[in-house]
Amino acid sequence: MYNTTAVVMDDFIIKYISAYIELTPEEEDIIRNQNLIKPFPKDTVLLAEGEHARECYFVLKGCVRRYHIINGEERTTDFYTENQSIIPVSYSTKKPSEYFLSCVEDTVIALGSNERNEELIKQIPKLETMLVQMASEMQAQNQIEMDNFKNLSPEERYRNLTETRPDLLNRVPLNYIATYLGITPESLSRIRKRISRNR
Amino acid sequence: MYNTTAVVMDDFIIKYISAYIELTPEEEDIIRNQNLIKPFPKDTVLLAEGEHARECYFVLKGCVRRYHIINGEERTTDFYTENQSIIPVSYSTKKPSEYFLSCVEDTVIALGSNERNEELIKQIPKLETMLVQMASEMQAQNQIEMDNFKNLSPEERYRNLTETRPDLLNRVPLNYIATYLGITPESLSRIRKRISRNR
DNA sequence: AATAACAATTAGCTTAAGTTAATTTCTAAT
DNA sequence: ATTAGAAATTAACTTAAGCTAATTGTTATT
Hints:
homodimer, alpha+beta, Jelly Rolls, four-stranded antiparallel β-sheet, 9 helices, globular, DNA-binding
């Protein structure tokens, strides 16, 4: 069950964690031995509406899209790319998921579960400190995104996106981007035209 | 320095914490002895734009409004009422605050700071478990609010607010509500009229 | 009770987003 | 290379939000 992808990706995780806390070589090994890294081909549905999320995800490579289906239409609510964690609401609340998670590209993910996380924390208690820090950062980031969304017009939101996550525009279809911005694909087309007209 | 308000409010805190973890009588005393409960009169600014937040807040009674000033206009971005925690972005990032926090009513708040929290956690390590749980709940709640905001029209957002936080409409001026919903007070007026017309 | 300050509504006009439908462009599969 | 299907754009029309300004309603203060 040896997996080249996993071996390379382990180093990304170690590096990521090391930005928060210092790991001894032994602790690094504990993490490496977890072997919870999995590649998913494009279009894999990680979580479907109605399902109970039993895992949380850390994107090592690729892109995951979060979307709701409302009146039969897909409404994208978030994109997760390299080094972003996904904690499904369903994972926290233990209720059926309101939304889908699906891979927009071939994606490599580190999987977490309550049981495994607790086990890991028992072995490396420092990890809990990291968790608290990460939670606080995510909370801050969420708030900033919400504030931007509320205070900016659709056009400003689009401009903002081209600045804060320019990569997304190249790796994700525009109709996904549109609903992510809270508008229709037609509106996004017009906005892009308007912007290109005025240079 | 004995304070009646604080004595009563302490019980709320104990009760709130007990929903997450079990406290021994000794631990309850430790928390009570913190004495970090303060009343603030209406219109007190807890945090101003540009300031560094050194405290986080837990609202025991009253209402705190978060707002940005954009082009000289106040844009409300959140309301915090009983049993809600406020962790300013500035508190997490150590950067100057982008927004204000101010009391809409006379408000009683439990104050937290990194130093005091760490001290407390040293004495009651269980508290860290609670923190992680709370963070996870807040994260879920934030996501749900963001999704609602993105996927609902202004009118639907207003209707949704009347269902999820009906108290707010009675305790907060409508012009605050309007910007909180991401619209102008004029638009909110029209929406309310539209709704009352159609019963 | 009168007044000042602020909150909320109303009106008219402008602008842009939603909706429906058609057309063009792009992509992937045979 | 051709074609089918999807994505993106365009257009025409409808609807509602933003903006400016005026008016009415409410609250607090003297």
